[in-house]
Amino acid sequence: MNPASDYRFGSWKGPACVLVWFTVILLAATSIWGYETEHVVLVIIDGLRYTEGLGDTNHTYVPRMYELSKQGAVVEPFTNDRHTNTRRGIPAIWCGGWTEVPTFADRHCGGVDNQCCELPTIFEYYRKQLSRPQEDCIYVLGDVGCIWKASFDADYGPDYWPLYHCEGSTDLEVWDQAQEILKAYHPSFLLFYLARVDHFGHSGSWGYYTRSIEIADDIVGMLWDFIQADSVYANTTTMFVTNDHGRHTDDFSGHDCDCEGCRTIQLLAVGPDIKQDLVSTVPRTLCDITPTIGELLGFETERASGSVMHELFEGPDTTRTPSR
Ligand SMILES: [Zn+2]
Ligand SMILES: [Zn+2]
After folding, report:
1. Helix (H, G, I), strand (E, B), or coil: what is residue 262?
2. Quick one: which of 2, 119, 233, 287 is 20 to 30 A from 103 by CA?
3. Residue 32 belongs to a domain
């Protein structure tokens, strides 16, 4: 018998053949429809105007994020399309939609009035649908006193809130906290909020404002370096970096109106499923972030009004635009 015949498809019979073909089909399906992302880190830099961020063609204050944008994707235009303030913009990111923010007596803060969300948040969708413990879903920010809470929605609510970790004052102190959290828990979803850019923007000092942007940019770079050096996170983590709002076009010390400076924000995405060196020109808003993360991690964001940014993903969809 010709030994070569052992290698013809016709000679593959029986259970072993079925198993081999099942494996081949499964692998093919995974590579076509599946995502490599297993972890997501979402960074919110409060109040960074796009003209000092990636909208600056010289990327004067954001060299690290510019470098990352070449390894990943940015969206232009990306906007806050409604309320260009923090107390509405941040919950819109969490909820993937413009949510009301009702007041409630917060027993975690001695019964003082605090705000929550009417719509369920990304934390709740993620934890409930994927049965994840609180320490797998962590929100790291500075010590802001009584932190705004997620929703009391009947289907979701406090049982699915994230682990809130509020410690530190400066962005660098909060970054130290974030590293400790990442090392200790390796959460699959981390939201990391940096407050200082907005704070120093309001000071009216251009020097302090731009220096705080450089620090936030450094932190994003160090975070990505940390991810790539960590055996759990390397090559399986997607990072998004965005803002809640911009700042007035003609006055960086304020925001909260309809001007282009207040509306225009950043969306930088980098990770194993994200196209490289892409400037996507499909207009998007901050409501589209949570549905996109849900798509990557495998949960539904059924009450969100935003939609998945498929155009950023590697694969057959080709909305790719020429490199900058
Ligand atoms: Zn502000
Ligand atoms: Zn404005």
Report:
1. helix
2. 287
3. no
Which ligand has the nearest atom to the CA of 255? 2
CATH of the domain at 187: 3.40.720.10
- Residue 148 in tokens: 């705004």
- pTM (two decimals): 0.88
CA of 34 to the centre of ligand 1 (A): 39
pLDDT tens per residue across all 324 residues of the chain = 444 444 343 444 455 545 555 554 544 444 455 999 999 999 999 999 999 999 999 999 999 999 999 999 999 999 999 999 999 999 999 999 999 999 999 999 999 999 999 999 999 999 999 999 999 999 999 999 999 999 999 999 999 999 999 999 999 999 999 999 999 999 999 999 999 999 999 999 999 999 999 999 999 999 999 999 999 999 999 999 999 999 999 999 999 999 999 999 999 999 999 999 999 999 999 999 999 999 999 999 999 999 999 999 998 654 444 444
Instruction: Give me the number of domains the chain comprises.
Output: 1
User: Across the chain, where does the E strand assignment appear?
Assistant: 39-45, 73-75, 78-79, 103-106, 112-115, 137-141, 163-166, 189-194, 237-242, 264-265, 267-270, 278-280, 284-285
Distance 131 CA to ligand 2 centre (A): 41
**CB of 148 closer than 8 Å to CB of 87:** yes
In a domain, 13, yes or no: no
Environment of ion ligand 2 (residues, CB < 5 A): 248, 257, 259, 262
